[in-house]
Amino acid sequence: MFTSPCSFLLEDTSSESSGINAEYGGKVEEAKKVLTQYSKLAKKPLDLTGVNLVFGESTSKEEGMSTSERIKEIIEHKALLLETLVQWYFWFVSCLLFYFLNYGWGSFGDTPYVNYLFAGLGEAIAYVALMPITSFFGRRKGMIFCLGASCACFLLGMIPWQWSEVWSFERLMSMAAIIGVSCSFALAFLYTNELAPTTHRGLVLSSCSIIARGAAFIGPFVSEIFDSSRVKLGVNAFLAGSAALLTLLLPETRKLAIPEQASDVSSRRKQQGLPEICS
Asked: Tell me, what's the pLDDT at 111?
């Protein structure tokens, strides 16, 4: 059954649907095609021959909620509010570091094209490694691992070791950090979609996207704010490390049911033994 924008109810009957075709035009046949295609994707093909699709208005309370009502519900459910704030933070950090690294290669001297080449290779490695990381560690530990690895790279980059006029340990570790940062940025999309309840997923994901967009504007200018490279790396390490620690407050979502309503978020936290948030 579909519930948006209107409900489709399957009736096992061969009689013609009176009035429906006249009101909805070709949408009935179109809906049958979509249902058939989805059933094939699910490897459970449906035969809709002789089946009428009856349109009915949805009675779901959540469907009629406005954006302001959804925001109010997030504030009222403290567990959902906490998880949303943590997601905002790791989206901000991942995006800021991603754009800081990708727009700061020129500060290393020499030709920036070598830096772009290695950065591109690092991102390619990250996207290939993302699937095994999420499969082995899960979403929560995978995010912690990626952010923690980035933090370690930034800290190691503070070691003053330079073996040529151009190449230094800072440059090498910054290139290594792009792997963890790219992984965390890509994983943020998957993790947020599984963390947010169905009734609030669009709102939570769009708000995270807004936060990331703000970080994308700030990231390229971080190199200009601080003169010392050690300070830059220290700030980046703090951001990545703190985001990794805050992710400990979030639940694991791999192979688990996605919450449907805001109240389900608290139940999921109880099941995983996470700290309960007072309402």
From this structure: 64
| pTM attached to this predicted model | 0.73
Kindly state the tokens that stand for 197.
């309840």
Among 155, 36, 119, which residue's Cα sits nearest to residue 147?
155
86: Cβ–Cβ under 8 A, 6 or more apart, which residues?
246, 247, 249, 250
With b for 16 or more beta-carbon neighbours within 10 A and e for fewer, the 127-145 pattern comes to: eeebeebbeebbbbbbbbb
Q: Which of 145, 144, 94, 97 lies closest to 249, judged by CA?
A: 144
- What's the rounded Cα separation, in Å, for the pair 152 and 131? 22
Report the alpha-carbon distance of residue 74 to residue 80 in Å, rounded: 6
